[in-house]
Amino acid sequence: MAKKVIQTDKAPSAIGPYSQAIKVDKTVYISGQIPIDPESGDIVAYDFKEQAIQVFKNLQAILEASGGTLADLVKVNAYLSDLSFFAEFNEVMQEFLQKPYPARAALEVSKLPKGALVEVEGVAVID
After folding, report:
1. Measured in Å, how far apart are the chain's first and last C-alpha atoms?
2. What separation in angstroms does the CA of 85 have from each of 1, 66, 91, 121?
3. Ordered DSSP codes for 68-79
4. Does pLDDT of 18 surpass 90?
5. Domain 3-125, what fold?
């Protein structure tokens, strides 16, 4: 089993001791992405929809660096600072993903890094 570190400047650098993603064979394990603008290193806004859009842009950039696309996602875990954002999260997810959608979990958490309102991690399989 050969592990390959996935790193791209088109997504934010890790803010801790972890990789943006790890690819093992055809499977890509993507670390949780928060709404950081990769150029500035700052949270994009304190509007939930804008944050969710940035999170999916970050996931997309990492998948492209892995040789895949968002269509290759098979599982995502979404962490929301408030489940009242659930419907809005679904809307943004549908803007970026097509059917068949990946399997998913969505959880409310008490706090996310840098005061983010949303974080998403995923697993993709790239043929």
Report:
1. 17
2. 39, 30, 10, 17
3. --GGGEEEEEEE
4. yes
5. 60s Ribosomal Protein L30; Chain: A; (3.30.1330)
Distance, CA of 50 to CA of 70 (rounded, Å): 18
Q: How much of the chain, in percent, has pLDDT values that exceed 90?
A: 94
- The mean pLDDT of 87-110, rounded to a whole number, is 97
Distance (Å) of CA 58 to CA 2, 12, 14, 51, 63: 24, 7, 12, 11, 9
Structure tokens at 8: 């791209």
Asked if residues 28 and 6 have their Cβ atoms less than 8 Å apart, the reply is: yes
Spell out the domain ranges in the chain.
3-125
For residue 48, the surrounding DSSP H or E stretch is: helix 48-65
Kindly state the DSSP code that residue 21 receives in the 8-state scheme.
E
Q: Is residue 15 over pLDDT 90?
A: no
Contact 49, 103 (CB under 8 A): no
The three-class DSSP label of residue 61 is helix
Contact predicate 64/115, CB 8 Å: no
